[in-house]
Design brief:
With 393 residues, this protein is an alpha/beta fold. The protein is 28% helix and 27% strand. Strands 5-4-3-6-7-8-9 form a seven-stranded mixed sheet, covered by helices on one side. A seven-stranded mixed sheet has the order 14-13-12-15-16-18-17, with helices on both faces. It is globular and about 70 Å long.
């Protein structure tokens, strides 16, 4: 059991989710700064990490795994660090309070509806996971029941019982994962209540969020990070913008009001569907979306000689690819705004830009307090006349 600022976490020793729980928050920020500075100092000055005023209950996406206990009880929570043993969690200090209350009440309802938790060893049981997403601005709540088969006993009565406890829920889905896999969500999905998605507000735009769509889990810090990204882009209304790895289109749609046109590229087709609906809902007519691999797309457009003035890139933790960066250098936009959730791959990728681009500004943000993750936004400007060195003959 550990205590931070009067907050007591009885699960910190086993859970492993909050790897930095034993550090004061200011100490966490200092350590994260040292990590980013060590990796990025050769590219430019690294300012202090921008942290949160209240670093608790910030996660708008909450996932719980279900399973049977040794005495037949239902376990519900997270996997113990480096194992598949379930830590039975009643509440979590970094997760949204409403979301964790919904998961706890689903656990309490299960015996009445004869819903068995899934046993990974035997393959017996029905409920594998519950995923809850909440729009902090709108209050809309999505509940995803991940089942081992598509049949939920007394489905209608279960939905009524859950809504009676939590009328704030706006949509409920069944997701079927019948495979022996560590993946949470399966391919088959069915809406059993509501519209099948939620919406949230961010910097003047409304965003549609599906079960599988990427949406930043810390909406408080995301607003600050996105404002900085738009500031770095230096848009005047005349630019042609590429939003690579665009997800549900958040950054590009916010930028569209300040640009001539925006092109969003994303491999996840469900996220692209959300992005298209987001553009319609916000009456944004100067952004188009393409479902494609970002590297393949940018290599193709570089060969065709297309031009973009500004490129936003927000790749996954694995970072971008060398082929993407090389094609981006060939594409030669005036500015590149790189949003990264992994300073190690960020440092690697920045080296690939070579002498053609200069890192102008760096700003790290603490998007995930009490964990070792850190997000950074970096501005790169094209060097107009890069110095080249000829090899002696």
């Amino acid at each position: 059991m550990s205590t931070r600022d009067g907050m007591i976490c009885p699960y910190s020793e086993k859970c492993g989710g909050c790897s930095l729980w034993n550090q004061d928050y200011e100490e966490q920020l200092d350590n994260k700064y040292r990590q980013v500075n060590k990796l990025l100092k050769d590219f430019g000055e690294v300012p202090p990490v921008i942290g949160m005023g209240y670093p608790y209950h910030y996660r708008n996406k909450v996932h719980a795994v279900f399973g049977p206990g040794k005495k037949g009880q239902i376990l519900c929570g997270v996997y113990e660090k480096n194992s598949h043993r379930i830590v039975d969690v009643e509440s979590c200090l970094i997760e949204d309070k409403i979301s964790t209350a919904i998961i706890r009440d689903i656990k309490e309802l299960m015996p009445s509806f004869k819903i068995k938790p899934y046993n990974e060893d035997s393959g017996y049981g029905l409920l594998r996971h519950v995923l809850v997403r909440r729009g902090f601005s709108t209050g809309e709540v999505m509940v995803v029941l991940v089942l081992s088969s598509p049949i939920l006993p007394s489905k209608n009565n279960f939905v009524k019982a859950l809504l009676k406890l939590h009328p704030e829920i706006t949509t409920i889905l069944i997701n079927v994962n019948d495979r022996d896999t560590s993946m949470v969500l399966g391919e088959q999905e069915k809406v059993i209540y509501g519209k099948g998605y939620i919406v949230d507000d961010m910097l003047g735009c409304r965003f549609r969020i599906s079960a599988k769509s990427f949406y930043q889990v810390n909406p408080v810090q995301t607003k600050h990070l996105y404002r900085k990204a738009i500031e770095f882009a230096g848009l005047t209304g005349e630019e042609r913008v590429l939003d690579a790895y665009c997800g549900t289109g958040t950054i590009g749609l916010i930028a569209a009001a300040h640009a001539k046109e925006v092109m969003g590229v994303e491999l996840n087709y469900e996220a692209v569907g959300d992005a298209i609906q987001n553009a319609k809902q916000n009456k944004i007519k100067n952004e188009r979306f393409l479902c494609a691999d970002a590297t393949e797309y940018i290599v193709d457009v570089a060969k065709m000689g297309e031009h973009f003035d500004v490129v936003f890139m927000d790749p996954p933790r694995a970072g971008s690819t060398k082929a993407f960066v090389e094609a981006l250098v060939e594409l030669a936009p005036e500015r590149v705004v790189y949003i990264s959730c992994n300073p190690e791959t960020l440092a690697r990728d920045l080296k690939w830009f070579g002498r053609e681009y200069q890192v102008e500004q760096i700003q790290p943000y603490d998007m995930f307090p009490f964990t070792d993750h850190i997000e950074s936004v970096v501005l790169l400007n094209k060097v107009q006349n890069p110095i080249t060195y000829l090899n002696p003959q």
